[in-house]
Amino acid sequence: MTHIVIVGAGECGARAAFALREKGFDGDVTLIGAEPHHPYERPPLSKDGLAGAEPPKYVAAPERYEEVGITVLTGAMAEAIDRGRKTVHLSGGRSIGYDRLLLATGARPRTFPGVSEGAARIRMLRTHADALAIRAALAPGRRLAVVGGGFIGLELAATARKLGAEVVVVEGLPRVLSRAVPEEIAAIVAERHRAAGVEIVCGARIAAIEDGGDAARVLFADGGSLAADLVVVGIGAVPNTDLAEAAGLTIDNGIAVDETLRTSDPDILAAGDCCSFPLSHCGGRRVRLEAWRNAQDQGTLAAANLMGGAERIASVPWFWSDQYELTLQIAGLADGAAATVRRAMDDGAFILFHLDGDGRLIAASGIGPGNAVARDIRLAEMLIAAGSRPDPAALASPETKLKKLLAA
Amino acid sequence: MSANWVEVCAADEIDEEDVIRFDHEGRTFAVYRSPEDEYFATDGLCTHEQIHLADGLVMDDIIECPKHNGRFNYKTGQAKGAPVCVNLKTYPVKVEAGSVFIAIS
Ligand SMILES: Cc1cc2nc3c(=O)[nH]c(=O)nc-3n(C[C@H](O)[C@H](O)[C@H](O)COP(=O)(O)OP(=O)(O)OC[C@H]3O[C@@H](n4cnc5c(N)ncnc54)[C@H](O)[C@@H]3O)c2cc1C
Ligand code: FES
């Protein structure tokens, strides 16, 4: 019987396992995960879920796996792949043979140079265990320093304020969210944080971060310093490629796959945060995404292709972030945009549409209270997928329904 | 058990292939008008997180949640895949004298 083995029991691995069954695969499926839990959702960890959810929010109830015939090995680290023998070696000495293998190993937080792993007052946020440790250190009056003004750091800052902690965010670049978000939106986010009492320091040059036992300290290159009860470092993530690299697979900012998610070994696929792939909407440019829906979409696609299909990646990158009452949603990748069109909506919400030199819609970024921008961002995503060149005046006018543009 | 019919709105207040939110006695519903000009009703909140589906997008017989794009068939309430796995409850709907009514049990 055909045996499909999935290494990495996160959003992507779990989705792939269930999708195999939904698509009628009747061989064996084994899902191997290093963490002690069944697959759970990470997005809540920096949002409301930080407020102490136990157990974590599972991708699927643990008993569902057994019901559909998925063997889950938790607390099991895949340590080596023997491609000749088609075998995965696990921690503890166990080995598992595969016919096809999916690597869904995800990413891990980038570490700050010189910070030792055991430092109790300097932490990172990726796992449920991380969230519990951070939660335990936050209380009214406690001081949290977040290093890095990216999505995870800012979401954590908002949640920590809700819990009553004093929060300072330290960013090295001139503004927060500079990697993925247009300046106008980043400015609104920063302003909202300031209104909530979060101090934001941009353009900071950090020399070191120290755990002094009774307090942690962020030391600046100019000689200044900042003390906090807890420092959380949120300076991006790096893909988990060690296993693939040791097995001789091609690595290029992640495990390199083609548009069908195949690695340089046709019996091994990779998907989710760990892989880089050619994105057809961006002229085949190789990208790596760290996004929840991408992990799901690629997990589903991987399942089809593990069963012998050759389906190509077609989905448009999509991301959201929640901070206070604001939700930000982004479809597509805005870099390379030649023009931007703004559409104002109710309650201060707005969407920026990004067009390339030929007038093709390549991305849309929106922000507003609650789900104010959701529907139009979703329609924008479909316009992007269709490769359409909408009339900029129609995009800018809130009276024009985007659904009409899609039908046109 | 006799149905408790509640008036929602005038039939033309819902666009074709669209949805509105309807709150009644502390409960919230989503009421739909299909592309075929039929009316349907479901519970108002997504079964993944407590999000109002009426902010979502209606496409054919699918309502897509605005938060994480979970999908349901609003005619049957069936969850159509990740991240939603719990179906939506549906409610009978009738149109009388130009108004939409739903039967709340
Ligand atoms: C705090 C936080 C908030 C987020 N918020 C959002 C958000 O608002 N919106 C959004 O779009 N995205 C968000 N994300 C990103 C999203 O969670 C990720 O894109 C998604 O989890 C990627 O799924 P994955 O399965 O590829 O990887 P992961 O979720 O990282 O899962 C990989 C799993 O593989 C395991 N593993 C790795 N190597 C091995 C091995 N050798 N053997 C066994 N197991 C192994 C890891 O332990 C891990 O459990 C957030 C992420 C975090 C951390
Ligand atoms: S709240 Fe509806 S899909 Fe998550």
UniProtKB/TrEMBL annotation, chain A:
Its cofactor is FAD. InterPro entries: FAD-oxidoreductase/Apoptosis (IPR050446), FAD/NAD-bd_sf (IPR036188), FAD/NAD-binding_dom (IPR023753), FAD/NAD-linked_Rdtase_dimer_sf (IPR016156), Reductase_C (IPR028202). Residues 34-53 are annotated as: Disordered. GO terms for molecular function: oxidoreductase activity, acting on NAD(P)H. Residues 3-299 form the FAD/NAD(P)-binding domain. It comes from the Bacteria. Keywords: FAD, Flavoprotein, Oxidoreductase. Residues 35-45 have a biased composition (Basic and acidic residues). GO terms for cellular component: cytoplasm. Residues 318-406 form the Reductase C-terminal domain. This is Ferredoxin reductase. It comes from Sinorhizobium saheli.
UniProtKB/TrEMBL annotation, chain B:
It comes from the Bacteria. GO terms for molecular function: 2 iron, 2 sulfur cluster binding; metal ion binding. The keyword Metal-binding applies. It comes from Sinorhizobium saheli. Pfam families: Rieske. Residues 5-102 form the Rieske domain. This is Rieske family ferredoxin. Keywords: 2Fe-2S, Iron, Iron-sulfur, Metal-binding. SUPFAM superfamilies: ISP domain. Its cofactor is [2Fe-2S] cluster.
